[in-house]
Design a protein that fits this description.
Blueprint (H helix, E strand, L loop, with lengths): L12 H15 L11 H8 L3 H13 L3 E4 L3 E4 L8 H21 L4 H28 L2
Helix pairs in contact: 1-3, 2-3
């Protein structure tokens, strides 16, 4: 799993780590039960403070994405969300609202935005299919 940080983005580093781990889990690059890198080595690899990685892992655990097993490390949980569907939809509303505002500022129509969403969903589904095929081929 490759995490790339953008220190000029204005987004807190720990949230960038959270988002990228969630994206890796969603795309299938990170499988349920698979261990996450330990805090110290990941912090050294990313050249950030260990507390930043720990904060990201705590946030992921709070969101029900990972679980910590004492003495063993952090692992990606099964994709059974601890949240009800209404809560999950509400969690998605904020980033969708941000995308709508951004589209408005870029003077794009609702149809343009829907087209981008459809295209990105197709790309995501293709990535998932490739990852599924890849994992089936591995012994």
């Amino acid at each position: 799993m490759l995490i790339q940080l953008n220190f000029k983005s204005g987004k807190p580093v720990y949230l960038q780590v959270v988002d990228q781990i969630k994206a890796a889990a969603a795309s299938g690059a990170l499988r349920p039960g698979e261990p996450l890198p330990s805090i110290r080595p990941l912090a050294e690899q990313l050249r950030i403070n260990r507390n930043t990685v720990a904060k990201a892992y705590t946030e992921l655990e709070t969101q029900g994405v990972i679980e910590t097993l004492v003495g063993r490390g952090c692992f990606l949980k099964e994709s059974n969300s601890p949240f009800r569907k209404e809560v999950r939809l509400k969690m998605l509303a904020e980033p969708v609202d941000e995308a709508i505002v951004q589209a408005h500022h870029l003077q794009l129509t609702g149809e343009d935005l829907q087209g981008v969403v459809r295209d990105r969903l197709k790309v995501f589904e293709q990535k998932q299919q490739r990852e599924d095929t890849k994992s089936q081929e591995e012994p």
